[in-house]
Amino acid sequence: MGSTAHAALPRRVAGALVVLALTAGTITAASLVPAATESPGEPARPALLDTTPALAAKPYMGWSSWSMQTSKYPGLNPEGRHSYLTEANVLKQADAMASKLKDYGYEYINIDSGWWRTMDWERPAFDSYGRRKADPVRFPRGMKAVADDIHAKGLKAGIYVPVGLDKLAYGGGDVPIWNAGDCTTADIVYDDLRSTNGWDNAYKIDFSDPCAQKYVDSQARQFADWGYDFLKFDGVGPGSGRRGANYNNVPDVAAWKKAIAATGRPIHLELSWALDYGHVEDWKKHSNGWRVGTDVECYCGTLVTWTNSVDDRFDDVPPWTRHAGPGGWNDLDALNVGNGEMDGLTQAERRSYATLWAIAKSPLYIGDDLTRLDAYGLSLLTNREVIAVNQGASPPAQPVTPSDPQQVWAARNVDGTYTVALFNLSGSPADVTAHWATLGFTGEAGVRDLWLREDLGRHRDKITRTLPAHGSHLFTVTPYGEPLDHTRVEAESPINTLGGRASARGCSGCSDGRMVGNLYWGGNLTFNKIVVDSAGTYQIKVTYISGDARTAEISVGGGATTRHKFPATGDWRTLSSVHVPVVLKAGENTITFDSGTTGYAPDIDRIDIPRP
Fold this sequence. Notes:
about 600 residues, Immunoglobulin-like, Jelly Rolls, six-stranded antiparallel β-sheet, 33 strands, disordered N terminus
């Protein structure tokens, strides 16, 4: 029947955190500090010793201009496309953050796309070296003055640049590169002027020519001299809706990492948007954060809506979860939960939005108008217990149940407790239950409600809540029971039955080196001789591989089927696990995983049956 395995209760020790910090791609080395401001044309000055902590030790917290400058909400952009983005408005948000949110850890004020464009978005401005310069209407005092004012409030300043050489900065190839000898824009791009980035509005940079790195260096030097602490690097591929050699911007990201380090100023490098999972190791190596999905904004009469595209993140996040940690984090995009009507969400949706961002350990950067936060929004953004979940040393949460309308996400914390979130993603109220068995223990546990900041006493074996449409609850669960043992049953065991196209094959990461795949168009796998001592509902743990989210029809003893959607694992080599409930009779049972006649199910490594 398979071997018996004790339920694993992983521990995240301090040493593991140190290793992750060293491998997650922190931009600035520990030996550097900000260099003194230079005038254009001067060589870079030597950097001094630095004792500041590494960047992105925790997900960053702050505000970004993009959500408001792209919304059609009345009054936000009355003077033209993205006209909200002005020096006055940015500093107004900085004032509000300093007075309302700084004490809770929010610190970055990030200026997004368009700071170099006219109000009609038609005429970008560049200096004599092909670098962007501030539009004099939007930012009449220039970008350095704005950064200085942000710093004076005890905050940090962020700026934005897209991938590649803007086609309008090319200047026929005759534009010189700052501090680069005879280099011109003709030297830094391919001879065929191939385009790149998510909008194809830039020429792809050819890093085989040393002049190319010099151009990136010149931009990084400029941002450092202006005093910026954060850079959003946008339109990065593979990703941003683009594929192919023209859109492989890994060399660009690597060049920016190198250029930032050379400035001697710690600058957080954040990548956008919808980055390709296949290059996750590159993003981790060269940056401090990476967007895992498309824009969260709806570009409509509000900032966001639930279906465009807040709810998409529940499917986007799972494959990325294991890659987040000190030095680099999964970026779910802006958090717009503070303004009520402007957000375009119900109160339940606002709390679920904030809950997912917190447990996924996404950066918490607000896209709302901080001068107009309502009482409920302010309570969401300033709940210290929820912020602690996001900023603490424990790992990001991940689904412990399938990606069905009712979901449970959890993470084991460094102190042995669990962070547990319940979500109801359906359009009507529903009960959602977290079973302690899915966390690896049985018996009693203490429960604390983090949003309400109150203890709920001890609960045996589970906690259930009736949630409104798109609602959620967030708990800390403290186990008082015993670890749960499981009986492991391998999918490829000879006692099982394979139907249709299903077949067993090798799998380097699987528990016995093999798994069952080809579960599609009627392919199925039946686990035979599943023996339990007593009848009841069992939370079986299913370990599987699925490059994309796939659905399986699960039945016991040839009875009625229940469909469950398994979250994507990101590729066809990586394993993940979720728990599904099955009702077993005392004695011998069969459990079948079926693709359905036209569907696709995940590859199955094994199941683990809890032993009471």
